[in-house]
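From the pipeline queue, job 12 of 40. The input is one protein chain; the requested action is below.

Action: predict structure.
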Amino acid sequence: MGNKNRKATKSEMAHARRVVAEAFPDLDAVWGAHGDYGGHRAPRDHTISFRLRDRRGKFHSNVVWLMPSWLARLTVEDVRGLVEQSNGGRRWKGC
């Protein structure tokens, strides 16, 4: 069981959704999980991920992986930093 994390609670997921929406109000977060990217691409089982997409369907970030233990203390600045890091250091400049 060393390759599994605990599952995220509903309140942790709600907090993460609020923070991501606040960090990028003009974009929608598309949430995923371990098996959504071909099964073995997640760092560990029970990881949560998201990508940012505009209203026209164009993605503005790569996949951002989150550990369930991070969700409760996730901040807007954390999310912006994680998205910037996933995009190779390029900041999202808006539509």
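Job complete. Residues 15 and 73 are 9 Å apart (CA to CA).
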